[in-house]
């Protein structure tokens, strides 16, 4: 009986060991990411995306896209350049295992210039959230904007098999910026230009609304 227990424990340790090793390597690999993306992937600065809870396939693709110059960002391209496949695996696995936290958006600055204030919606917050929910769940038939939930899941937790990112509880500032980058063609690493085609049909008000709705999801 003792031999059987000892054998079972030995097998269990063999199974746990790679997972522990991967978690430890992940913590080491993300050490340089913390300054922007926060502790355990929950960034405090709204311009930097939260990575906690994001699916592994999406995270891996972004890092490879930075390496291959398919996604442009001087800082991230520099950070990703030296990463090995093992590093990318460890980083993506680490962040995918974390839990995203909702962080209150910063108070609006009355001294923002006109360009920055474009992100502010003329409708009140409750109306904006309602409009964003409608866009996310049903799209806009008139302008042929598809429902975001069709790819990103009804609960906005993404589709890990397809590599479509989770969007819930993400910073509103980052979401608005990303959608506008797609709309202007500044970001081009979306499969079959799906996001570029969608964002081009969206008004700034719609972008702000759906971003606010997603940031508000807990």
Folded structure, characterized:
The chain is mainly α and 218 residues long. The protein has 2 domains: 2-96, Cytochrome c-like domain (Cytochrome Bc1 Complex, Chain D, domain 2), CATH 1.10.760; 118-216, Orthogonal Bundle (Cytochrome Bc1 Complex, Chain D, domain 2), CATH 1.10.760.10. The chain is built from 11 helices and no strands. The chain has helices at residues 2-29, 34-37, 56-67, 74-81, 85-96, 114-117, 125-138, 149-152, 172-183, 194-200, 204-216. It is globular. The protein starts with a helix and ends with a helix.
Low-pLDDT windows of residues: 3-20, 107-119
Average pLDDT reading? 87
What percent of residues adopt helix (DSSP H or I)?
A: 40-55%
Strand content: under 5%
Topology readout:
Layout: H1 2-29, H2 34-37, H3 56-67, H4 74-81, H5 85-96, H6 114-117, H7 125-138, H8 149-152, H9 172-183, H10 194-200, H11 204-216
Helix pairs in contact: 1-5, 3-4, 3-5, 7-11, 9-10, 9-11
């Amino acid at each position: 009986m003792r031999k059987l227990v000892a054998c079972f424990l030995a097998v269990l340790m063999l199974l746990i060991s790679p997972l522990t090793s991967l978690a430890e390597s992940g913590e080491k690999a993300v050490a340089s990411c913390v300054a922007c993306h926060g502790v355990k992937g929950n960034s405090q600065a709204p311009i930097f995306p939260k990575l906690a809870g994001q699916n592994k396939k999406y995270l891996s693709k972004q890092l490879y896209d930075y390496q291959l110059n398919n996604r442009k960002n001087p800082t991230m391209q520099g950070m990703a350049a030296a990463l090995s496949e093992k590093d990318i695996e460890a980083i993506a696995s680490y962040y995918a295992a974390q839990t995203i936290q909702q962080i209150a958006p910063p108070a609006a600055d009355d001294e923002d210039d006109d360009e920055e204030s474009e992100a502010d919606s003329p409708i009140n917050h409750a109306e904006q959230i309602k409009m964003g929910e409608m866009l996310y769940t049903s799209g806009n038939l008139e302008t042929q904007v598809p429902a975001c939930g069709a790819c990103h899941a009804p609960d906005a937790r993404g589709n890990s098999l397809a590599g479509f990112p989770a969007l819930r509880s993400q910073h509103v500032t980052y979401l608005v910026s990303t959608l506008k980058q797609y709309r202007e063609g500044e970001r081009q690493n979306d499969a079959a230009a799906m996001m570029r085609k969608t964002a081009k049909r969206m008004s700034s008000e719609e972008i702000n609304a759906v971003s606010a709705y997603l940031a508000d999801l807990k």
